Fold this protein.
Amino acid sequence: MKITFFLIVVTVSLFLLGACGEVREKQPMGTLTKKKVEMTAKEIIYQLEIFKEREDIQALSKAIVMLKALNNYERPDANQWPSLRKDLAALWIRVIQVIDIKVDKAFNFNDVPTMNIAAPGSYPSGIASESISNPELRKQYEQAIESNSRKANKYMFQYKLKSIKDSMFQEAEDYLVALYSECPEEIGELKKLLYLYESDKLFESRIDKRLTAK
């Protein structure tokens, strides 16, 4: 039954991961403005707060979709772009930083929850707790069900979050490298943002290596 649970998690995660990246393809939505970035940033931050507080993957997915949608706008003129570039970089870094904080790096994915808890005595597995007449056995059974439910929820959350992290960290790395490879003299700006949001050191070093190698 553990295998069945694992397959359910994988299926749901792949669906959700696809939804995170589902942004309308390259249909220009006009020129990007400071106001648009600021309004979108507020919505993204709001969704990130919901995600952090409730461990709500849907809120994180909404934040990611809104972030990627900003790529559909055309760049403003050269005078306005530097300020927006910094704002966009900060948003990407902030999103992945929130993801990284919620990932349990010590989580054991081999410890898979069961689909049905073994019932006490001669009762069949998966029986409704109210069908157990012995109050002590019924209490133990209900506690075991509740414990397994919490374990399953945590497993599902961490599994989906890991899938999102693997995808988003690579996308963020590629995005930031592309953004600042156009203006190598401003790489210091990016480094300050990475430091400000306490980015993952491996993530930071990969970006630095790619930008300094150009």
